[in-house]
Design goal:
With about 425 residues, the protein is an alpha/beta fold. The protein folds into three domains: about 120 residues, 3-Layer(aba) Sandwich (Rossmann fold); about 70 residues, ATP-grasp fold, A domain (Dna Ligase, domain 1); about 160 residues, ATP-grasp fold, B domain (D-amino Acid Aminotransferase, Chain A, domain 1). A seven-stranded mixed β-sheet has the order 14-13-10-11-12-15-16. A five-stranded parallel β-sheet has the order 1-4-3-2-5. The protein has a four-stranded antiparallel β-sheet with strand order 6-9-7-8. Helix 4 runs antiparallel to helix 5, helix 5 crosses helix 6 and helix 6 crosses helix 10. It starts with a strand and ends in a 9-residue tail after the last helix.
Length: about 425
């Protein structure tokens, strides 16, 4: 376990004094997604170095993280970020494998390619093709993969787009983290032309390219994603999952996700990845459009995401598969099984909402969670895993409580 969150210089010194018997993994940033990746890799004895711009993430406290420290935030200073990561990599005595856990870290690593760091995903051009919604929806159009009615506002007059869509509509950026940093969110629902103009003016002032998109009448609890890893040779490892409960419903963060059998989601997700020439870990997100009675593509994340522990629990350890390919490590793949993932903090908040869905967990699952048995036993015929809470690794839960009830707030929802 990382005993403290170090400055960049102190981290480099600590790594230089440590002999690693295999290439470490660099995980950045270091909150809930980073924790899931660290636990997936540490289960195979891969040493993990967690990087972030702040010490408030939950991952540094985990037994799965060997070292943790601060680096320059890439949206503040990309050249400084590159130099910090290069120094961290050199200090390990190996060529570590990097796992960026938010879009800005993906873009920064693929654009700057720090010396001595191995990237287990496709090059910058292919990453940009998938992460940029303008080009992503162009791909979907060519493939016949359904997506929401969308108007690029660099091609279409905003007033014409509003006339075609009607209100309410949603405004989205081509690259979501740029808008999130500038406006505090990556999706804005607008009810009328005045709100629409206000959002567009703010996006223009921040130099964020945006689109106008229909507000899909989403079927609550039906969202599905293809969670996958595609090797450079085209080998596929994937699990389809249903985000059954979000907080708040229907557009909040996932808090209960479970494996499901949706062949059309698997096929469409891999079709998009193949057309983009993308390899690496990714999540292709689809929602069920109640009006069309059809799944439509919303987004593809070319990185790990919040519930990355679900495919691991289901027998598809995507981070380890990526690490193994890059380093030439042999890794055994366990049998596939049904699985559920739970983020207790948001799930309990959802349960406290009287208008929320009924409890999806049975008595046996609650008892397994409270006793800790869920870590070693299947419950109701499936594996059960969590975002943060684990009795065998309790410090991240304490860190989350400090963040939730303290004065500081972590800077992303991952």
């Amino acid at each position: 376990m990382a005993t403290e969150f170090l400055s960049t210089d102190a981290l480099v010194d600590a790594l230089s004094s440590t002999a690693f018997d295999r290439p470490p993994a660099i995980v950045c940033n270091a909150h809930i997604t980073g924790l899931g990746v660290a636990r997936a890799l540490a289960a195979h004895d891969v040493p993990v170095v967690a990087l972030d711009r702040t010490d408030e993430g939950v991952a540094p406290a985990s037994d799965a993280v060997a070292f943790a420290g601060r680096v320059t935030y890439p949206l503040d200073d990309r050249a400084g970020f590159r130099e910090d990561v290069r120094a961290v990599a050199a200090a390990t005595g190996h060529e570590p494998v990097a796992f960026p856990c938010m879009d800005e870290w993906v873009h920064a690593l693929s654009a700057t390619t720090p010396e001595g760091v191995r990237l287990p995903f496709a090059d910058r051009e292919r990453v940009s093709t998938v992460l940029d919604k303008f080009s992503l929806y162009d791909l979907a159009e060519d493939l016949g993969v359904p997506y929401p009615e969308t108007y690029r506002l660099d091609r279409t007059d905003p007033a014409d787009a509003a006339d075609a869509l009607g209100f309410p509509l949603v405004v989205k950026p081509a690259r979501k983290r740029e808008m999130e940093e500038a406006l505090g969110t990556n999706v804005v629902e607008v009810a009328d032309r005045e709100e629409y103009r206000t959002v567009l003016d703010a996006a223009d002032a921040a130099d964020v390219a945006v689109m106008a998109q229909e507000k899909v009448r989403v079927t609550p609890g039906a969202d599905c994603s293809l969670a996958s890893y595609v090797s450079p040779d085209g080998d596929r490892l994937g699990v389809v999952a249903n985000a059954r409960v979000r907080h708040p419903q229907p557009f909040g963060t996932s808090c209960l996700v479970e494996t499901t059998d949706r062949p059309e989601i698997r096929e469409r997700g891999f079709d998009v990845l193949d057309a983009a020439g993308y390899h690496g870990v990714s999540e292709a997100e689809f929602v069920h459009d109640a009006d069309r009675d059809e799944y439509v593509l919303l987004d593809v994340n070319t990185r790990p995401w919040k519930w990355i522990s679900l495919p691991v629990a289901a027998g598809a350890n995507l981070p380890m598969a990526a690490y193994a390919d890059v380093t030439g490590t042999s890794v055994e793949r366990p049998e596939r099984r049904d699985a559920r993932w739970l983020y207790l903090r948001d799930y309990l908040a959802q349960r406290a909402d009287s208008g929320g869905p009924p409890d999806a967990l049975g008595r046996a699952e609650w008892l397994a969670l409270l006793s800790g048995r869920f870590e070693t036993e299947r419950v109701a015929g499936r594996a059960l895993t969590t975002a943060v809470y684990r009795q065998s690794d309790p410090a991240p839960t304490l860190s989350l409580l400090d963040t939730e009830f303290g004065d500081d707030e972590y800077y992303c929802a991952c």
